[in-house]
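Q: Convert this sequence to structure tokens.
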Amino acid sequence: MKKFLWGILLFILFFQNPLIFAQKTTSKTTAKTTSKATTKTASKTTAPAEQAEEPAIEPNWQLVVGGAPVGNPIITEYGFAVPLEGRTMAAVSESGKLMWFAGLPGTRISPHSSPGTGDFLITISGGNSVSLINPSGLTLWSSKAPAEVISTPIQGRDGRIYVQCPQEVACFGINGVLKWSTPAGESNGIPLIELEDGSILHIQKKTLQGCSTALRYSPFGIILEEITFSGRITSAMATKYGALLLFADGAVGCVSSTKNETYDHWVLPAGTISGTAAARIYLDEYQSVCAIITPSGGATTVTYLNPKDGTISLTATAPIDMNKIAFGTFDKSSLVLCDTSMAAAIGLDGTILWTSNLPGTLNWSHIVYLPQGYLAMLEQGSWVISAYRVTQHIGSTSQTKKNNRSLTFPVYVQEAAQRGNIPQDTSTLYGPAMTASYREEMRYELEEGNYNDKEGQWLAFVNLETSRLFSKYTVQTRNSPEPSFFDENFSYYEEIVNMMSSFQSGCFNKELARIIRTENDPVVLAIALQGAAKIAYDPTFELLESIESLLKKPSLIANPRISTLMCDVAYEICRFMGKPALFTKGRYILSYLLNQNLQSTTKIYATATMRKIITLEM
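A:
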């Protein structure tokens, strides 16, 4: 009875006081409720959603963090994160609140930190320690790369993480296992780029007759081709249409790979945009507008183009010294640029929406513009961050980002199936596609890592068996009076579902969610729930949604085994995905199980799960 009363009290605290989930941190923050000045405008026209202000003399807020910055801040949905001396990462909200600290392994932190999907952070410390931090500041894992990481990592479409080392490229699973590493020529300094078919472009220092070369890798570490370009690449950026490339001779192009080989998606000849050898590229978050900025005396030329087809919409001049450029980003409907003394916003129609002088007395090392209208300046060698209001946004034009990337790699899995002579017959009347020894090898190596290009064939086999498994629900009941192989060999069914959750990625999230939604056999359902808890990576919350759908099946959640596994899945996904998962689905699932007329064991377990989440201090 005491335990039950403790659970009720915990439930009240959990839902009536959500601040209990915020990490308890203190900071010296001073927030101004009003701003004394407005920005100067270089045009008589201002955007209707903005109100001009004069240059701020005093900061609107200041924050003291636990170290000096050692790398560029990373923009997030909540504000920004910044690597600090002392091997820590700090997250700062748009209003100047210190949200969390995360400690990192190694003797030093690298400037090569990067954003992952959905406010995850991928950090490098100690030269070759790769860490994944969730949106709530929890370091999920740290793993060693084969050698020093020399550029910002990138996250692939199914969660896998690619890093660039001096003589190789490596790939980690979403849970930190090193999947593969493969040789690569010395990099020219441009980070890896994921192309639209999921392959990876590594631009090399090596040139042929003055032209850049690159290696293109499959997601499974196979070198697909070596590419020689028509000029020397000076800058590159990934878009959903391919890799946008700038060349030293002034040419601009987009290289695509949807045909499983690289080809020119579009090209702007040399001279179309001048000065691209010293250019920088900026892309809006919806990838509908690209800005190429080039020097123009003491100012900057801004060229807006459509990354889909290379169409130039306009060219404008910004009062920013390109030779002293410090920061650039897109803000809703404008490009914001900063040099060492001034910031300006250039609208998509070329209008200068606002300009602002930067504080001349501040000795800053990094600067970042926040979409709420602040310039946050990080002082050199100091723990102080100062934010100045440069424009006042009225309302919000924010949209929901759409992830157009498929979680799977159908082209490469199909090729792997062909190379391995994997059968494609999905009839459930046949026996297993994989021998027992092959399955044992797969299970072992998936856990240990370093399996290199074997992953493609394993995915092909599991894809085949998953298709056969689903036909068990549809074909067998309608057309075949005989039980399928899966009906008669439950242990094999269990093996396949376990394999679906062992690839350190979100490739089979959709399939596991389908089983959870449709399966009514508690024994089979339990296996799928265990698989979902093992994956934990749920960027679209389809696994949590499938768990939520079980709440409409009273007979299943009345089973203590099923209800406790539902708690486990909710905990593991919330732990991995952070607050977004907790407040979107996880909290509701746990509260429902606690409040329904279920067995006391379920209520006690749901209470204990809540306590575990509170302990995470997210």
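Residues 332 and 428 are 52 Å apart (CA to CA).
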